[in-house]
Amino acid sequence: MDARLSSSSNQRSATSSGGPVRTCVGCRSADLRSVLLRTVVQTDGAGRPVLVVDVDRRLPGRGAWLHPDPRCLELAERRRAFPRALRTAGPLDVQPVQAHLEAAGHHQLPGPSPEA
């Protein structure tokens, strides 16, 4: 089992080390803001909401935080955590976040697809 999935001990270590702490919408464990990816909702050219990775952590709007780990992304998608955390109606496509993780070298785990 991944250490991030054990939230009680991770919360104590993250909060005692100083610095801003946020909760991952996937595994629900608290970690330093510097370790997590921030995602926000922006609108595309047609006015539809689109989930984007806020690399600089400066985009306006409500943010949802995620460990840069495909497992946390899968958990967040399965739990429908992004629309809830970002207070957006309807599902959001996580493909931009998945593409960011793959570009950063965090590859999807082998096994069944989350849609299955």
Automatic annotation (TrEMBL):
Q: Where is the composition biased (Low complexity)?
A: 1-17
Task: Show the segment(s) annotated as Disordered.
Answer: 1-23
Q: Which residues form the YlxR domain?
A: 22-95
InterPro entries assigned to the protein according to its UniProt record, in alphabetical order: YlxR (IPR037465), YlxR-like_sf (IPR035931), YlxR_dom (IPR007393)
What taxonomic lineage is listed for the species of origin? Bacteria, Bacillati, Actinomycetota, Actinomycetes, Micrococcales
Query: Under what name is this protein listed?
Result: YlxR family protein
Query: Which Pfam families did the record assign?
Result: YlxR
